Amino acid sequence: MRQAIERRFPRPSVMGVVNVTPDSFSDGGVNFDPDDAVASARRMLADGAAIVDVGGESTRPGAEGVSAEEELRRVVPVLEQLAGMPVSIDTSKAEVARRALQLGAELVNDVTALRGDPALAEVVAESGAYLCLMHMQGEPRTMQADPRYDDVVSEVAAFLEERLRAAVAAGIAEERICLDPGIGFGKTVEHNFELVRRLDELTALGRPVVIGFSRKSSLGKLLGDPQATTGSVAASVGAAVAAYERGATILRVHDVREHVEALAAAQAVLA
Ligand code: 9MG
User: Fold this and answer.
1) Is 152:183 a contact under the CB 8 Å cutoff?
2) Tens digit of each residue's pLDDT (9 = 90 or more) over 214-232
3) Per-residue pLDDT at 25
4) What is the 226 CA–ligand 1 centroid distance (Å)?
C-alpha cells in the first residue's frame, strides 16, 4: 500500500518533464530519441527532482492526438531503462497507463482528469497508483482559440472537486490524488496568473496542488512578446516560487536544478 501523496511528495517537490515527442514547443523535441530522454530523466533526478513525468503525446496548444500504439512505442523504451527510478506517466489512455504501471510508474498524470478514456479510472484504482487530475477547457487542438470564464478560479475549483469525487467513486483513494488547475490549458495569460494568485481557493479542496508554469507562453507574453510560444527559465522559476508560496506542493518543470535551488531558498525564507 502506498503512503499518502502528501507524504510521498512533501512541499515543495519538483516533477521533471520528459516529453518523448517530436513537437514540443517548450523543449523542441530534444528527448524524442529514447536514449536522450533517459539521459535527461537521470539528470533531472540527480539534480533533485522527486519524480520524472514521461509523456509520449504532445498536449501543447494545437497538438493533434496520437494512437495508443504510437504513444507506447515512444514511452516504453524510456520506461524500461528507468526501471527502479521514480516515474510518472503523462497519459490519458488506459492502455498506456497499464503498461507504464507494469514497468514501475507510480503516478498517472491525466490532463483530461479521467474524461478521456472511460477505462483509465479502473486501471489506476486497481494498481493503487497516485493520480493527478488536471483542469482543461476544451482540447489541446483548439483550447487556446477563445478561452472564457465568468470566474476562472471558482470554475476550475468546482471542476476539480467534481473530478475528485468521480475518481473516489471509481475506487481511487482520495489520499493518492493531487489536483492541477492546468496552466495554459484553455486559459488566457490573465486566467493563468489569477489561478496562482488565488491558489488558496484550490488548496482549500484539501488535496496537494500541482502547478506547471514552466516555459509556458504566458510567461513570454507577460514579458512583452505577444507572439511568444515559450517562457524563459528565469520567469518559470519566479512563477514556481510564487506558486509554492501560495500553497503549491508539486512544481512540474523542465529546468530541474534551477527550480530545486530556488525552491530550497524560498523554503528557508518562508519556514
Ligand atoms: C502534460 N502537461 C503539460 N502541462 C501540464 C501541467 O501544467 N500540469 C500537468 N499535470 N500536466 C501537464
Assistant:
1) no
2) 999 999 999 999 999 999 9
3) 63
4) 22
The closest alpha carbon to 209, from 247, 164, 173, belongs to 247
Establish whether residue 186 lines the binding site of ligand 1, counting it when its CB lies within 6 angstroms of any ligand atom.
no
Question: What is the percent of the chain with per-residue pLDDT over 90, rounded to a whole number?
Answer: 89
Q: Compute the radius of gyration of the chain from its Cα atoms.
A: 17
Q: Residue 160 burial by CB count (10 A; 0-12/13-18/19+): exposed, middle or buried?
A: buried
Among 180, 187, 214, 216, which is best to mutate for testing ligand 1, by the most ligand atoms less than 8 A from CB? 180
Q: Look up cell 488547475; give the residue.
A: 181
* Mean pLDDT on 78-104: 98
Which residues belong to the active site? 216, 252
- For a ligand 1 pocket test, name from 89, 90, 202 the mutation site with the most ligand atoms within 8 angstroms of its C-beta: 90
- The helices-and-strands tally (H runs, E runs) of the chain is 11, 8
Question: What gap in Å lies between CA 206 and CA 177, rounded to an integer?
Answer: 10
Q: Say what percent of the chain tops pLDDT 70.
A: 99
The residue whose CA has the least distance to atom 7 of ligand 1 is 212
pLDDT of residue 142: 81
